[in-house]
């Protein structure tokens, strides 16, 4: 990949786990387990390619409306993944952040998230943000509430600094797998100037080649941020 145009921050809506499982006559949770394997591969591939931030949509605030057995299975899957994956992430130099509303999570899950973040806090090769119990509208609302409680004026800069992802720059490339062409309440504020890429592959099938295709498409696009092409030529920076 050309270093000059490599996306610094990639965000992914990991969609299609359930349909992947259904096609194979497997329970939906089997698809989510396969999705964890796909995330492991993707995180490793991003780090190897020089991407500095990867943000993934793991569990939305709307996912609580799914069947109880699926939600319970996802929570158990998260606990197992933390125990299994965190040591590997720590060795690979990846710093882990869980982004979302933790208030409605069990004390056990909250403790697990905090421990995972602490175990990787010294890493600086790549940041992996896992958006869990997250919604873009929730993020904007909590940022505004934080400013209001502090008596601060709600300006664009202040709101941006109060966002749950204020520790990283906005995503350059937002990928959604699974064939759907929407962002589903993911990073509504942060994706204002992100390049959008939609893949027909279900998330468990999204491999290194698919990632490279998405990055390649990103590299072929011109990002103007409100300027003209001529202005970009005159001032490449």
Strands in their spatial order, largest beta sheet? 3-4-2-1-5-6
Give the distance, in angstroms, between the N- and C-terminal Cα atoms. 19 Å
Measured as a percent range, the helix fraction is 40-55%
Order of helices and strands: EHHEHEHEHHEEHH
Describe this structure in words.
The protein is of the alpha/beta class. The protein is 45% helix and 15% strand. The chain is built from 8 helices and 6 strands, in the order βααβαβαβααββαα. The protein has helices at residues 17-23, 28-49, 68-91, 107-119, 136-150, 156-162, 208-220, 229-234, and strands at residues 9-13, 53-60, 94-99, 126-134, 173-176, 195-198. It has a 6-stranded parallel sheet, sandwiched between helices. Strand 3 (94-99), helix 4 (107-119) and strand 4 form a beta-alpha-beta unit. The longest helix has 24 residues, at 68-91. The protein is globular and about 55 Å long. The mean pLDDT is 91. Its EC number is 2.5.1.-. The active site is at 15, 63 (proton acceptor). It is an enzyme of class 2 (transferase). Pfam families: Prenyltransf. Catalyzes the condensation of isopentenyl diphosphate (IPP) with allylic pyrophosphates generating different type of terpenoids.
């Amino acid at each position: 990949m050309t270093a000059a145009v490599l996306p610094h921050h990639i965000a992914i809506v990991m969609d299609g786990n359930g349909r992947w499982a259904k096609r194979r006559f497997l329970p939906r949770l089997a698809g989510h387990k396969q999705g964890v394997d796909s995330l492991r591969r993707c995180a490793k591939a991003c780090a190897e390619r020089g991407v500095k931030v990867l943000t993934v949509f793991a569990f939305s605030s709307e996912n609580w409306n799914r069947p109880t057995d699926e939600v319970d299975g996802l929570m158990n899957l998260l606990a197992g993944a933390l125990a299994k994956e965190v040591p590997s992430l720590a060795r690979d130099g990846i710093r882990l952040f869980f982004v979302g509303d933790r208030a409605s999570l069990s004390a056990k899950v909250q403790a697990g998230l905090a421990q995972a973040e602490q175990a990787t806090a010294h890493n600086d090769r790549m940041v992996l943000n896992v958006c869990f119990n997250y919604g873009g509208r929730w993020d904007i609302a909590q940022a505004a509430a934080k400013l209001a409680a502090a008596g601060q004026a709600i300006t664009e800069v202040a709101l941006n600094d109060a966002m749950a992802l204020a520790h990283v720059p906005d995503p350059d490339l937002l990928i959604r797998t699974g064939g759907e062409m929407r962002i589903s309440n993911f990073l509504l504020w942060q994706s204002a100037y992100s390049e959008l890429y939609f893949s027909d592959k279900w998330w468990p099938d999204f491999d290194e080649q698919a990632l490279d295709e998405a990055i390649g498409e990103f590299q072929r696009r011109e990002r103007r941020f409100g300027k003209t092409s001529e202005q970009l030529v005159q001032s490449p920076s």
